[in-house]
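Why do we care about 3D structure at all? Because function follows from shape, and shape follows, mostly, from sequence. That is the central idea of this module. The next example makes it concrete: a single protein chain, its amino acid sequence, and then its structure expressed as tokens.
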Amino acid sequence: MPVPALELVTVIPPERVRQIQEYLEDYKDALEPDVSNYAKGRQRFWIRYEWDLKNKIFRRANHCDRLWEYCKKIFPEADLGLAAFGPVGINLHRDDSYADWVAYSINLGEIEAWLYEPSRTTFGPGPQTQAEVVKVAVPSGGVIRFNCKNRHGVLNPSPDRWSINLWHVKDEHREKMPQ
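And the structure:
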């Protein structure tokens, strides 16, 4: 069943998924508890810049140059990313004000489902309607493009699962990014 404003872009081959996971292992010491109320207990680290939810500002974060080069091939307009690890998913939420409409998520492990509420049926600001939450099967290696202002979440990730989420910063927040 097609889901509006959600697209499976590609599936990264298993050998490449393992290579990315091995690379991410070098950054395990950068993992910190997520501060979001939607992901209590989740471990994560920011890539390039960190968005401070409380103060609504950006801070410099891990550069992970090789990983960032790979991420830019997937989403050339990306300005920052967030890597998450482990068995804690994230409840339904919309991404914060810094994020432009289109985001990408790279699933590097097993999950029960990706949850998505397609209340906006385009990859932009279009009209919002009532929509039911759907469970979307996203395989390990799955790269999805979605409207991050629609509610979305992840259900039951495996203990060794990594994910990388990528965003383009809205124009009105770009001046907050450190130079």
